[in-house]
Amino acid sequence: MKFPRNVRLLRNPFAAAPFAAVFFLLVIFLLLGALLPTPGLPLQLPEAAGLPGTDQPSEFLAVDRDGRCFYKNQIVTNLANLSRSLRAAVTNSPAPLTLVINADQRVTYGQLVQITLLARGAGITNALLATLPTDGRKPAARP
């Protein structure tokens, strides 16, 4: 079978139709993907540079801008349940635990103090606030 040597693509409108169909299908999928909600908890952590981390076993607690606490991917309805969960984590851990608090920028200082006092009552003596690293373009705020 002999193939023609001079094939001319996209010479008529029917040859461009498959390319246009794939393009518009791709646009539809991208638009639908942009409308879907992002999974997870939207937190805006403050930026800071040069803060210490920890090498100890850690428990993580998230606090959103409305003051709701999330521990182990579950919403905490009252602080008594959180205290029991933290006590259970302390008893199951062979080393001292560190509580890392992922708090939104709009969380008040009083709420953070209440959470750290609750952790201290549960047996966690070290609590750290999670921050985002600075991008290096703007200088970090000095205390």
How would you characterize this protein structure?
The chain is an alpha/beta fold. It has a domain at 47-133: 2-Layer Sandwich (Nucleotidyltransferase, domain 5). Helices cover 36% and strands 18% of the residues. It is built from three helices and seven strands; from the N terminus they run αββββαβαββ. Helix 3 (109-122) links the parallel strand 5 and strand 6 (126-129). The longest helix has 23 residues, at 13-35. It is elongated and about 85 Å long.
Furnish the topology, listing elements before pairings.
Elements: H1 13-35, E1 47-48, E2 58-63, E3 69-71, E4 74-76, H2 79-92, E5 98-103, H3 109-122, E6 126-129, E7 132-133
Parallel strand pairs: 1-7, 2-5, 5-6
Antiparallel strand pairs: 2-3, 3-4
Structural class: alpha/beta
Largest sheet, strands/sense/barrel: 5 strands, mixed
Uncertain regions spanning at least 5 consecutive residues: none
Strand arrangement, largest sheet? 4-3-2-5-6
Radius of gyration: 27 Å
| CA distance, first residue to last residue | 81 Å
Number of strands: 7
Silhouette = elongated
CATH class of the domain at 47-133: Alpha Beta
Give me the strand/helix succession: HEEEEHEHEE
Annotated CATH topology of the domain at 47-133: Nucleotidyltransferase, domain 5
Number of helices: 3
- Mean pLDDT across all amino acids: 85
**Gross CATH architecture of the domain at 47-133:** 2-Layer Sandwich
Beta-strand proportion: 15-25%
Helix fraction bin: 25-40%
